[in-house]
Amino acid sequence: METEHVQPDNIIHSRGAVLSGDCCFVGVSLAATAAFSCLFVYISIMPGNSFGQLFRITTAGVSHGPGYLLIVDGCPPGIPLSEEDLLPDLRRRRPGQSQVVSQRKEEDLPEIWSGVFEGKTDGTSIGILFRNRDARSQDYNDIKDKYRPGHADFTFDAKYGFRDYRGSGRSSARETICRVAAGAIAKKILAEHGIRVVGYVKQIGSIQAHIPEPASVTLEQVEANIVRCPDASAADRMIALIDEVRRDQDSIGGVSELVATGVPPGLGEPVFDKLKADLAKALLSLPAVVGFEYGAGFGVAEARGSQNNDLFVPKPEAVKGIGTLTNRHGGMLGGISSGEPIVCRVAVKPTSSLSKPQKTVTRTGSPTEIATKGRHDPCLLPRFVPMGEAMMALVLVDHWLRWQAQCGSLAKSRTVPDISR
After folding, report:
1. Contact assessment for residue 377 and residue 101, using Cβ atoms and an 8 Å cutoff
2. DSSP 8-state secondary structure symbol assigned to residue 201
3. Per-state percent for the chain, helix, strand, coil, to nearest 5
4. Torsions phi, psi of 312, nearest 5?
5. Architecture of domain 50-410
């Protein structure tokens, strides 16, 4: 079979040539080409463990296995990086940090195995290892043949035919340790260009925080209490509510708001890779996230165009000298950043694993009752904040690198070019 090198796109030609990866297979039947194509396409996308284009992360591991692996590809060389740089955000995500989160005790210490030389990134793949220290797999023996309501047990069985019943296996929120570490690297790169990402808890249950200026919220305000809400009055009531549901062997959901400031206009693509679309995918890929909105969000359903439009005005302090009077568009227009703060919100559901008995079925469909042991968050929001920040930072750094690669000097310009003459 003759081969030749081609561009790495997966294409089926009607004359019987399959272009896939590095190879072109010529002179085979259409049935064979289709089979080859399906195989190569599957290999090229299987099975969703990587995220990003130019700044790309890959994760591996389960919550009750030996640990987790993170690979970061595309990080520019020369970025100062040490294990200590990753610890602040990892500690914000770590279980056992307060009475309102899971009491699993993990140090979550990163081990950088590659990609850093003499304290700086060297441009090659960054490999980071995390070891699990406090897994208690025996807590799950009683439920290995039962489906937890609201959990991925049934859907994992439906997809793979069996599952790792310890903890939540691959769907465990513990996987986000890799995302938070990668996000810390992304934040370092973004900070060099004046871009900052801050998240906080906006709502738990029916208790809503009053945040009049999202772009003005500081990390210090967020970290001032264990629930990570910058409204101190609302935070006290949120903590009391979490404690109430915990004592009732239940859980509670809420909303996290994420804000990126200093983002220049121009990030994002106009069609499929809109910045808003990639942010939505990134945040919805986090465990327990069931809703996403940005800017005015679903509030636009009741607005008229004249009410919803943000009017353009001169802004000498803006990167291009132009901005908007208001920010109902949430910092993105046509899928591209506008230079205004990017403001997103996500709804996070209550923790599904409950010690309170609930009705369910076994793997064979027999009715039964389930009560989940183990150590679970009565509310996911306090630990969700660094996870959400990480995914927002990963999207922004990926699009920033893509913008630099595509637009070059235009991306570095502080003015809008006049091409009318």
Report:
1. yes
2. E
3. 35, 20, 45
4. -75, 140
5. 4-Layer Sandwich (3.60)
- 120 CB neighbour count, 10 Å cutoff: 14
Query: pLDDT (tens digit, 9 = 90+) per residue, 295-346?
Result: 999 999 999 999 999 999 999 988 888 999 999 999 999 999 999 999 999 9
Tens of pLDDT, residues 226-257: 999 999 999 999 999 999 999 998 999 999 99
For residue 373, count other CB atoms closer than 10 A to its CB: 14
Q: How far, in Å, CA of 389 to CA of 396, rounded?
A: 11
Among candidate residues 122, 89, 83, the one with its CA nearest the CA of residue 394:
89
The strands making up 18-20's β-sheet, listed across from edge to edge, are 11-12, 18-20, 23-25
Please give the C-alpha separations between residue 48 and each of 42, 58, 60, 347, 401, in angstroms, as whole numbers.
Answer: 11, 9, 11, 23, 22
Domain boundaries, the chain: 11-45, 50-410
163-168, long-range: CB < 8 A, 24+ apart:
164/62, 164/64, 164/65, 165/140, 166/62, 166/63, 166/64, 166/135, 166/137, 166/140, 167/62, 167/63, 167/64, 167/135, 167/137, 167/140, 167/374, 168/63, 168/287, 168/353
Scored b (16 or more CB within 10 A) or e, 204-240 reads bbebbbebeebbebebebbeebbbbbbbeebbebbbe
Give the C-alpha separation, 206 to 383, whole Å: 19
The closest alpha carbon to 418, from 320, 324, 277, belongs to 320
d(CA 370, CA 360): 7
Do 104 and 169 contact (CB within 8 A), yes or no? no
Mean pLDDT of 145-174: 83
pTM score: 0.86
Query: Rounded to 5 degrees, what angle do the CA atoms 271, 274, 280 make?
Result: 135
Q: Given the structure tokens 């929001």, which residue do they identify?
A: 381
Q: Are 234 and 196 in contact (CB under 8 A)?
A: no
Instruction: Give the C-alpha separation, 3 to 148, whole Å.
Output: 51
Angle between helices 83-93 and 381-407 (to 10 degrees): 140
Nearest CA to 198 among 336, 396, 399, 385? 385
Which strands form 342-348's sheet, in the order they lie side by side? 207-208, 196-204, 254-261, 342-348, 289-294
- How far is the C-alpha of 114 from the C-alpha of 128, rounded, in Å? 7
